[in-house]
Amino acid sequence: MAAETDTIFALSSGTLPAGIAVIRLSGPKAFEAAELLAGQIFSGAKASLRTLRRSDGSVLDKGLVLGFRAPKSFTGEDCVEFHLHGSKAVVSAVFNELATLTSLRLAEAGEFSRRAFDNGKIDLVEVEGLADLIAAETEMQRRLAVEHSFGGQSALYMAWAERLTRARALIEAELDFSDEEDVPGSVSDRVWMDVGAVYAELLQHIQGAQGGEIIRDGFKVVISGPPNAGKSSLLNALAKRDVAIVTELAGTTRDVIHVDLDLDGYLVRFFDTAGIRESDDLVEQEGIRRAKRAAFEADLVLLLEEIDSDPKYTPEQPQGTMLFIGTKLDRHTVSNRYDVCLSIKTGEGLDALRTAILKQVTSTWSGSLVPNRARQLQYLKEASNFVAEALDGGQLDLRAESLRIAATSLGRITGRVDVEQLLDIIFSQFCIGK
User: What is the end-to-end Cα distance of the chain in Å, rounded?
Assistant: First the structure.
Protein backbone atom coordinates (compact mmCIF):
# COMPACT_ATOMS: atom_id res chain seq x y z
CA MET A 1 0.00 0.00 0.00
CA ALA A 2 1.17 3.55 -0.71
CA ALA A 3 1.41 6.32 1.88
CA GLU A 4 -1.60 6.47 4.18
CA THR A 5 -1.24 10.25 4.41
CA ASP A 6 -2.25 10.59 0.77
CA THR A 7 -5.79 11.52 -0.15
CA ILE A 8 -7.13 8.86 -2.47
CA PHE A 9 -9.95 8.84 -5.00
CA ALA A 10 -11.66 6.23 -7.16
CA LEU A 11 -14.91 5.23 -8.80
CA SER A 12 -16.90 3.41 -6.11
CA SER A 13 -19.95 2.51 -8.19
CA GLY A 14 -20.51 0.01 -10.99
CA THR A 15 -19.13 -0.40 -14.48
CA LEU A 16 -19.58 2.58 -16.79
CA PRO A 17 -21.67 3.75 -18.51
CA ALA A 18 -24.32 3.82 -15.80
CA GLY A 19 -27.12 6.04 -14.56
CA ILE A 20 -24.98 7.41 -11.75
CA ALA A 21 -21.24 7.33 -11.05
CA VAL A 22 -20.06 7.68 -7.45
CA ILE A 23 -16.54 9.05 -7.05
CA ARG A 24 -15.19 8.77 -3.51
CA LEU A 25 -12.36 10.79 -1.96
CA SER A 26 -10.80 9.85 1.38
CA GLY A 27 -7.96 11.39 3.32
CA PRO A 28 -6.78 14.59 5.00
CA LYS A 29 -7.29 16.75 1.89
CA ALA A 30 -10.62 15.29 0.76
CA PHE A 31 -12.66 18.38 1.64
CA GLU A 32 -10.02 20.79 0.38
CA ALA A 33 -9.80 19.01 -2.97
CA ALA A 34 -13.56 18.68 -3.35
CA GLU A 35 -14.11 22.37 -2.60
CA LEU A 36 -11.69 23.32 -5.39
CA LEU A 37 -14.06 21.58 -7.81
CA ALA A 38 -17.48 22.15 -6.23
CA GLY A 39 -17.27 25.00 -3.73
CA GLN A 40 -18.08 24.71 -0.02
CA ILE A 41 -18.90 21.17 1.12
CA PHE A 42 -21.36 20.59 3.95
CA SER A 43 -20.44 17.80 6.35
CA GLY A 44 -22.85 15.57 8.26
CA ALA A 45 -23.92 13.51 5.23
CA LYS A 46 -25.96 16.42 3.84
CA ALA A 47 -26.29 16.25 0.07
CA SER A 48 -26.09 19.42 -1.99
CA LEU A 49 -26.49 19.94 -5.72
CA ARG A 50 -23.29 21.45 -7.13
CA THR A 51 -21.63 22.24 -10.43
CA LEU A 52 -18.13 20.77 -10.67
CA ARG A 53 -15.62 22.93 -12.52
CA ARG A 54 -12.04 22.70 -13.69
CA SER A 55 -9.46 25.14 -12.39
CA ASP A 56 -10.08 27.29 -15.48
CA GLY A 57 -13.78 27.55 -14.66
CA SER A 58 -15.09 25.23 -17.38
CA VAL A 59 -17.92 22.90 -16.31
CA LEU A 60 -17.20 19.24 -15.67
CA ASP A 61 -20.67 18.10 -14.60
CA LYS A 62 -23.50 18.83 -12.18
CA GLY A 63 -24.38 16.40 -9.41
CA LEU A 64 -24.84 15.70 -5.70
CA VAL A 65 -21.95 16.19 -3.29
CA LEU A 66 -21.84 14.62 0.20
CA GLY A 67 -19.26 15.23 2.91
CA PHE A 68 -18.40 12.97 5.86
CA ARG A 69 -16.05 14.29 8.53
CA ALA A 70 -13.76 11.88 10.37
CA PRO A 71 -14.40 9.60 12.12
CA LYS A 72 -18.00 9.41 10.90
CA SER A 73 -17.25 7.88 7.51
CA PHE A 74 -16.66 4.44 5.99
CA THR A 75 -12.88 4.80 6.19
CA GLY A 76 -12.78 6.76 9.45
CA GLU A 77 -11.13 9.64 7.56
CA ASP A 78 -12.57 12.76 5.97
CA CYS A 79 -14.55 11.54 2.96
CA VAL A 80 -16.38 13.23 0.11
CA GLU A 81 -18.56 11.63 -2.55
CA PHE A 82 -19.51 13.04 -5.96
CA HIS A 83 -22.70 11.52 -7.39
CA LEU A 84 -22.44 12.39 -11.08
CA HIS A 85 -23.76 11.30 -14.45
CA GLY A 86 -22.35 7.86 -15.15
CA SER A 87 -20.51 8.36 -18.41
CA LYS A 88 -16.91 7.38 -19.04
CA ALA A 89 -16.13 10.88 -20.26
CA VAL A 90 -17.44 12.57 -17.09
CA VAL A 91 -15.54 10.26 -14.76
CA SER A 92 -12.36 10.54 -16.81
CA ALA A 93 -12.56 14.34 -16.79
CA VAL A 94 -13.07 14.48 -13.01
CA PHE A 95 -10.22 12.01 -12.45
CA ASN A 96 -7.90 14.08 -14.60
CA GLU A 97 -8.74 17.20 -12.63
CA LEU A 98 -8.27 15.48 -9.25
CA ALA A 99 -4.94 14.03 -10.38
CA THR A 100 -3.54 17.54 -10.87
CA LEU A 101 -4.00 18.35 -7.17
CA THR A 102 -1.16 17.91 -4.71
CA SER A 103 -1.18 14.78 -2.49
CA LEU A 104 -4.09 13.19 -4.37
CA ARG A 105 -3.78 9.89 -6.17
CA LEU A 106 -5.92 7.07 -7.52
CA ALA A 107 -6.78 4.47 -4.87
CA GLU A 108 -5.29 0.99 -5.01
CA ALA A 109 -7.43 -2.15 -4.95
CA GLY A 110 -9.15 -2.45 -1.58
CA GLU A 111 -7.53 0.68 -0.18
CA PHE A 112 -10.74 2.26 1.12
CA SER A 113 -11.52 -0.94 3.04
CA ARG A 114 -7.90 -1.20 4.21
CA ARG A 115 -8.13 2.28 5.71
CA ALA A 116 -11.46 1.41 7.33
CA PHE A 117 -9.75 -1.59 8.94
CA ASP A 118 -6.69 0.39 10.03
CA ASN A 119 -8.96 3.00 11.62
CA GLY A 120 -11.00 0.43 13.53
CA LYS A 121 -14.19 0.88 11.52
CA ILE A 122 -14.37 -2.78 10.49
CA ASP A 123 -12.48 -5.98 11.37
CA LEU A 124 -11.15 -8.71 9.09
CA VAL A 125 -14.25 -10.88 9.26
CA GLU A 126 -16.35 -7.86 8.26
CA VAL A 127 -13.88 -7.09 5.46
CA GLU A 128 -14.20 -10.62 4.08
CA GLY A 129 -17.97 -10.46 4.50
CA LEU A 130 -18.03 -7.18 2.59
CA ALA A 131 -16.10 -8.78 -0.28
CA ASP A 132 -18.55 -11.69 -0.29
CA LEU A 133 -21.54 -9.32 -0.20
CA ILE A 134 -20.27 -7.44 -3.24
CA ALA A 135 -19.74 -10.74 -5.08
CA ALA A 136 -23.01 -12.37 -3.91
CA GLU A 137 -25.15 -13.76 -6.73
CA THR A 138 -27.77 -15.73 -4.78
CA GLU A 139 -30.00 -15.01 -1.80
CA MET A 140 -28.17 -17.41 0.50
CA GLN A 141 -24.81 -15.93 -0.42
CA ARG A 142 -26.24 -12.51 0.44
CA ARG A 143 -27.60 -13.73 3.78
CA LEU A 144 -24.34 -15.36 4.81
CA ALA A 145 -22.32 -12.32 3.72
CA VAL A 146 -24.61 -10.00 5.72
CA GLU A 147 -23.93 -12.00 8.89
CA HIS A 148 -20.20 -11.57 8.31
CA SER A 149 -20.07 -8.01 7.00
CA PHE A 150 -22.39 -6.50 9.61
CA GLY A 151 -20.54 -7.85 12.64
CA GLY A 152 -22.59 -10.87 13.70
CA GLN A 153 -19.75 -13.33 13.18
CA SER A 154 -17.19 -11.06 14.82
CA ALA A 155 -19.36 -10.61 17.89
CA LEU A 156 -19.47 -14.38 18.34
CA TYR A 157 -15.67 -14.73 18.19
CA MET A 158 -15.13 -11.75 20.50
CA ALA A 159 -17.57 -13.21 23.04
CA TRP A 160 -15.68 -16.53 23.06
CA ALA A 161 -12.34 -14.72 23.46
CA GLU A 162 -13.71 -12.65 26.34
CA ARG A 163 -15.02 -15.75 28.13
CA LEU A 164 -11.64 -17.46 27.78
CA THR A 165 -9.82 -14.34 28.96
CA ARG A 166 -12.08 -14.05 32.00
CA ALA A 167 -11.46 -17.71 32.85
CA ARG A 168 -7.73 -17.17 32.57
CA ALA A 169 -7.94 -14.08 34.80
CA LEU A 170 -9.71 -16.07 37.52
CA ILE A 171 -7.16 -18.85 37.29
CA GLU A 172 -4.24 -16.42 37.54
CA ALA A 173 -5.94 -14.67 40.45
CA GLU A 174 -6.01 -17.95 42.32
CA LEU A 175 -2.36 -18.58 41.47
CA ASP A 176 -1.17 -15.10 42.50
CA PHE A 177 -3.44 -14.34 45.44
CA SER A 178 -4.39 -17.71 46.85
CA ASP A 179 -3.68 -16.46 50.41
CA GLU A 180 -5.86 -13.36 50.10
CA GLU A 181 -9.32 -13.44 51.67
CA ASP A 182 -11.01 -11.49 48.86
CA VAL A 183 -10.04 -14.06 46.21
CA PRO A 184 -12.42 -17.05 46.06
CA GLY A 185 -11.16 -20.55 46.61
CA SER A 186 -10.78 -23.11 43.88
CA VAL A 187 -11.92 -21.74 40.53
CA SER A 188 -12.59 -25.18 39.08
CA ASP A 189 -16.34 -25.13 39.48
CA ARG A 190 -16.64 -21.53 38.33
CA VAL A 191 -14.30 -21.67 35.36
CA TRP A 192 -14.02 -25.08 33.77
CA MET A 193 -17.72 -25.56 33.21
CA ASP A 194 -17.82 -22.38 31.13
CA VAL A 195 -14.60 -23.29 29.30
CA GLY A 196 -16.17 -26.64 28.47
CA ALA A 197 -19.23 -24.86 27.11
CA VAL A 198 -17.00 -22.65 24.91
CA TYR A 199 -15.25 -25.78 23.64
CA ALA A 200 -18.56 -27.44 22.71
CA GLU A 201 -19.70 -24.27 20.93
CA LEU A 202 -16.42 -24.08 19.01
CA LEU A 203 -16.71 -27.67 17.82
CA GLN A 204 -20.30 -27.16 16.70
CA HIS A 205 -19.30 -23.98 14.87
CA ILE A 206 -16.40 -25.74 13.13
CA GLN A 207 -18.75 -28.48 11.93
CA GLY A 208 -20.71 -25.84 10.03
CA ALA A 209 -17.67 -24.78 8.00
CA GLN A 210 -18.52 -27.06 5.09
CA GLY A 211 -21.96 -25.48 4.84
CA GLY A 212 -20.46 -21.99 4.78
CA GLU A 213 -18.02 -23.00 2.05
CA ILE A 214 -20.81 -24.53 -0.01
CA ILE A 215 -22.98 -21.41 0.28
CA ARG A 216 -20.09 -19.20 -0.76
CA ASP A 217 -18.57 -21.36 -3.52
CA GLY A 218 -21.58 -23.42 -4.61
CA PHE A 219 -22.99 -26.92 -4.13
CA LYS A 220 -21.28 -29.28 -6.58
CA VAL A 221 -23.59 -31.74 -8.37
CA VAL A 222 -21.95 -34.18 -10.81
CA ILE A 223 -24.06 -35.99 -13.41
CA SER A 224 -22.44 -39.38 -13.94
CA GLY A 225 -23.19 -42.68 -15.63
CA PRO A 226 -22.63 -44.76 -18.78
CA PRO A 227 -22.85 -43.34 -22.33
CA ASN A 228 -26.31 -42.47 -23.69
CA ALA A 229 -27.91 -42.46 -20.24
CA GLY A 230 -29.15 -38.90 -20.81
CA LYS A 231 -26.55 -36.97 -18.83
CA SER A 232 -26.10 -34.08 -21.28
CA SER A 233 -29.83 -33.95 -21.95
CA LEU A 234 -30.46 -33.63 -18.22
CA LEU A 235 -27.95 -30.80 -17.91
CA ASN A 236 -29.66 -28.95 -20.75
CA ALA A 237 -33.08 -29.54 -19.18
CA LEU A 238 -31.96 -28.23 -15.79
CA ALA A 239 -30.30 -25.19 -17.37
CA LYS A 240 -33.27 -24.66 -19.73
CA ARG A 241 -30.86 -24.05 -22.60
CA ASP A 242 -28.41 -25.99 -24.74
CA VAL A 243 -25.24 -26.18 -22.69
CA ALA A 244 -23.97 -29.59 -23.80
CA ILE A 245 -23.98 -31.27 -27.21
CA VAL A 246 -26.42 -34.17 -27.36
CA THR A 247 -26.18 -36.99 -29.95
CA GLU A 248 -26.96 -40.70 -30.11
CA LEU A 249 -23.24 -41.45 -30.49
CA ALA A 250 -21.57 -42.86 -27.39
CA GLY A 251 -18.64 -40.79 -26.19
CA THR A 252 -19.95 -37.41 -27.46
CA THR A 253 -19.05 -35.72 -24.16
CA ARG A 254 -15.28 -35.87 -23.71
CA ASP A 255 -14.67 -33.26 -21.01
CA VAL A 256 -16.39 -31.92 -17.90
CA ILE A 257 -18.96 -29.25 -18.76
CA HIS A 258 -20.57 -27.17 -16.05
CA VAL A 259 -23.30 -24.61 -15.54
CA ASP A 260 -24.16 -22.57 -12.43
CA LEU A 261 -27.83 -22.32 -11.44
CA ASP A 262 -29.70 -20.48 -8.71
CA LEU A 263 -32.07 -22.95 -7.02
CA ASP A 264 -34.24 -21.25 -4.39
CA GLY A 265 -31.43 -18.86 -3.50
CA TYR A 266 -28.65 -21.48 -3.43
CA LEU A 267 -25.79 -21.57 -5.91
CA VAL A 268 -25.76 -25.07 -7.39
CA ARG A 269 -23.00 -26.02 -9.84
CA PHE A 270 -23.98 -28.85 -12.20
CA PHE A 271 -21.27 -30.83 -14.00
CA ASP A 272 -21.88 -33.04 -17.03
CA THR A 273 -19.20 -35.70 -17.44
CA ALA A 274 -18.02 -38.22 -20.00
CA GLY A 275 -19.85 -41.54 -20.15
CA ILE A 276 -18.07 -44.23 -18.14
CA ARG A 277 -17.09 -47.24 -20.25
CA GLU A 278 -14.07 -49.15 -21.49
CA SER A 279 -12.41 -47.27 -24.35
CA ASP A 280 -9.22 -47.45 -26.41
CA ASP A 281 -9.50 -43.76 -27.36
CA LEU A 282 -6.84 -41.82 -25.43
CA VAL A 283 -8.88 -38.60 -25.42
CA GLU A 284 -11.98 -40.40 -24.17
CA GLN A 285 -9.90 -42.20 -21.53
CA GLU A 286 -8.77 -38.83 -20.17
CA GLY A 287 -12.39 -37.62 -20.15
CA ILE A 288 -13.43 -40.73 -18.21
CA ARG A 289 -10.62 -40.21 -15.70
CA ARG A 290 -11.77 -36.63 -15.12
CA ALA A 291 -15.38 -37.78 -14.82
CA LYS A 292 -14.48 -40.26 -12.08
CA ARG A 293 -12.43 -37.66 -10.22
CA ALA A 294 -15.26 -35.10 -10.43
CA ALA A 295 -17.75 -37.65 -9.11
CA PHE A 296 -15.52 -38.52 -6.16
CA GLU A 297 -15.10 -34.83 -5.20
CA ALA A 298 -18.79 -33.92 -5.63
CA ASP A 299 -21.19 -32.87 -2.89
CA LEU A 300 -23.87 -34.85 -4.73
CA VAL A 301 -23.62 -37.41 -7.55
CA LEU A 302 -26.58 -38.07 -9.85
CA LEU A 303 -25.88 -41.58 -11.17
CA LEU A 304 -27.94 -41.96 -14.34
CA GLU A 305 -28.88 -45.12 -16.20
CA GLU A 306 -31.72 -46.00 -18.52
CA ILE A 307 -34.58 -47.66 -16.62
CA ASP A 308 -34.51 -51.49 -16.83
CA SER A 309 -31.03 -51.52 -18.34
CA ASP A 310 -28.28 -53.70 -16.93
CA PRO A 311 -26.02 -51.74 -14.52
CA LYS A 312 -22.88 -50.83 -16.46
CA TYR A 313 -21.03 -48.75 -13.91
CA THR A 314 -20.50 -48.96 -10.15
CA PRO A 315 -18.80 -45.73 -9.08
CA GLU A 316 -16.39 -45.23 -6.23
CA GLN A 317 -18.28 -43.91 -3.20
CA PRO A 318 -18.14 -40.10 -3.45
CA GLN A 319 -17.27 -37.79 -0.59
CA GLY A 320 -20.85 -36.50 -0.72
CA THR A 321 -24.20 -38.16 -1.37
CA MET A 322 -25.39 -40.21 -4.34
CA LEU A 323 -28.85 -40.37 -5.93
CA PHE A 324 -29.72 -43.10 -8.44
CA ILE A 325 -31.68 -41.68 -11.36
CA GLY A 326 -33.60 -43.79 -13.87
CA THR A 327 -33.94 -42.05 -17.26
CA LYS A 328 -36.10 -42.36 -20.39
CA LEU A 329 -39.30 -42.84 -18.40
CA ASP A 330 -41.25 -42.20 -21.60
CA ARG A 331 -40.03 -45.65 -22.81
CA HIS A 332 -40.33 -47.53 -19.52
CA THR A 333 -42.38 -47.74 -16.33
CA VAL A 334 -41.37 -46.40 -12.92
CA SER A 335 -38.92 -48.68 -11.08
CA ASN A 336 -38.25 -48.80 -7.36
CA ARG A 337 -34.57 -49.34 -8.10
CA TYR A 338 -34.13 -45.59 -8.42
CA ASP A 339 -34.50 -42.58 -6.14
CA VAL A 340 -36.06 -40.64 -9.03
CA CYS A 341 -37.34 -41.73 -12.44
CA LEU A 342 -37.64 -39.11 -15.15
CA SER A 343 -38.03 -38.37 -18.83
CA ILE A 344 -36.26 -35.45 -20.45
CA LYS A 345 -38.58 -35.72 -23.45
CA THR A 346 -41.82 -35.29 -21.45
CA GLY A 347 -40.41 -33.48 -18.41
CA GLU A 348 -41.93 -36.03 -16.05
CA GLY A 349 -39.86 -36.44 -12.90
CA LEU A 350 -37.79 -33.25 -13.34
CA ASP A 351 -39.62 -31.44 -10.52
CA ALA A 352 -39.09 -34.43 -8.26
CA LEU A 353 -35.38 -34.37 -9.08
CA ARG A 354 -35.12 -30.64 -8.33
CA THR A 355 -36.86 -31.25 -5.00
CA ALA A 356 -34.44 -34.07 -4.16
CA ILE A 357 -31.45 -31.88 -5.04
CA LEU A 358 -32.77 -28.97 -2.97
CA LYS A 359 -33.26 -31.28 -0.01
CA GLN A 360 -29.56 -32.11 -0.15
CA VAL A 361 -28.53 -28.48 -0.64
CA THR A 362 -30.65 -27.02 2.16
CA SER A 363 -29.33 -29.58 4.63
CA THR A 364 -25.85 -28.03 4.34
CA TRP A 365 -26.74 -24.74 6.07
CA SER A 366 -29.43 -23.97 8.62
CA GLY A 367 -28.97 -20.20 8.46
CA SER A 368 -26.79 -20.08 11.59
CA LEU A 369 -23.44 -18.31 11.86
CA VAL A 370 -20.75 -20.41 10.17
CA PRO A 371 -17.17 -19.81 9.00
CA ASN A 372 -16.75 -19.74 5.23
CA ARG A 373 -13.03 -19.23 4.66
CA ALA A 374 -10.03 -21.48 5.21
CA ARG A 375 -8.27 -18.76 7.20
CA GLN A 376 -11.13 -18.55 9.69
CA LEU A 377 -11.36 -22.32 9.99
CA GLN A 378 -7.63 -22.65 10.62
CA TYR A 379 -7.72 -20.32 13.62
CA LEU A 380 -10.95 -21.84 14.95
CA LYS A 381 -9.36 -25.29 14.95
CA GLU A 382 -6.26 -23.87 16.57
CA ALA A 383 -8.36 -22.24 19.30
CA SER A 384 -10.36 -25.41 19.93
CA ASN A 385 -7.17 -27.48 20.23
CA PHE A 386 -5.75 -25.17 22.90
CA VAL A 387 -9.06 -25.10 24.79
CA ALA A 388 -9.00 -28.91 24.72
CA GLU A 389 -5.47 -28.83 26.17
CA ALA A 390 -6.67 -26.60 28.99
CA LEU A 391 -9.56 -28.94 29.75
CA ASP A 392 -7.32 -32.00 29.79
CA GLY A 393 -5.82 -30.98 33.11
CA GLY A 394 -2.26 -30.53 34.29
CA GLN A 395 -0.58 -27.61 36.03
CA LEU A 396 -2.86 -24.66 36.48
CA ASP A 397 -0.40 -22.13 35.01
CA LEU A 398 -0.01 -24.22 31.84
CA ARG A 399 -3.77 -24.53 31.48
CA ALA A 400 -4.06 -20.74 31.81
CA GLU A 401 -1.45 -20.31 29.08
CA SER A 402 -3.44 -22.60 26.77
CA LEU A 403 -6.49 -20.40 27.31
CA ARG A 404 -4.41 -17.31 26.46
CA ILE A 405 -3.24 -18.83 23.17
CA ALA A 406 -6.79 -19.92 22.34
CA ALA A 407 -8.10 -16.37 22.87
CA THR A 408 -5.23 -15.04 20.73
CA SER A 409 -6.20 -17.41 17.91
CA LEU A 410 -9.76 -16.09 18.00
CA GLY A 411 -8.38 -12.56 17.91
CA ARG A 412 -6.45 -13.37 14.77
CA ILE A 413 -9.70 -14.21 12.99
CA THR A 414 -11.00 -10.67 13.42
CA GLY A 415 -7.55 -9.15 12.90
CA ARG A 416 -7.19 -7.78 16.42
CA VAL A 417 -3.78 -9.38 16.92
CA ASP A 418 -0.78 -10.37 14.79
CA VAL A 419 -2.18 -10.55 11.24
CA GLU A 420 -0.06 -7.99 9.42
CA GLN A 421 1.28 -10.57 6.95
CA LEU A 422 -2.27 -11.38 5.81
CA LEU A 423 -3.51 -7.88 5.11
CA ASP A 424 -2.01 -7.26 1.68
CA ILE A 425 -3.38 -10.61 0.45
CA ILE A 426 -6.89 -9.99 1.77
CA PHE A 427 -7.30 -6.41 0.55
CA SER A 428 -5.76 -7.09 -2.87
CA GLN A 429 -8.83 -9.21 -3.66
CA PHE A 430 -11.06 -6.11 -3.67
CA CYS A 431 -11.80 -4.02 -6.72
CA ILE A 432 -10.53 -0.48 -7.15
CA GLY A 433 -12.89 1.90 -5.38
CA LYS A 434 -13.68 -0.42 -2.46
Answer: 14
Question: Given this structure, which CATH class describes domain 216-362?
Answer: alpha beta
Is 272 annotated to bind a ligand? Reply is: yes
Q: Is 284 annotated as a binding residue?
A: no
In sequence order, the 6+-apart residues with CB closer than 8 A to the CB of 12 are: 22, 23, 24, 81, 112, 433, 434
Residue 228 annotated in ligand binding: yes
252 is in an annotated binding site: yes
Threshold 0.90, pTM exceeds: no
119 labelled binding-site residue: no
pLDDT at 261: 92
Q: Which of the listed CATH numbers 3.40.30.10, 3.30.1360.120, 3.40.50.300, 3.40.50.150 matches domain 7-122?
A: 3.30.1360.120
CATH superfamily of domain region 126-208+373-415: tRNA modification GTPase MnmE domain 2 (1.20.120.430)
Q: Is 249 annotated as a binding residue?
A: yes
Q: pLDDT higher for 340 or 281?
A: 340
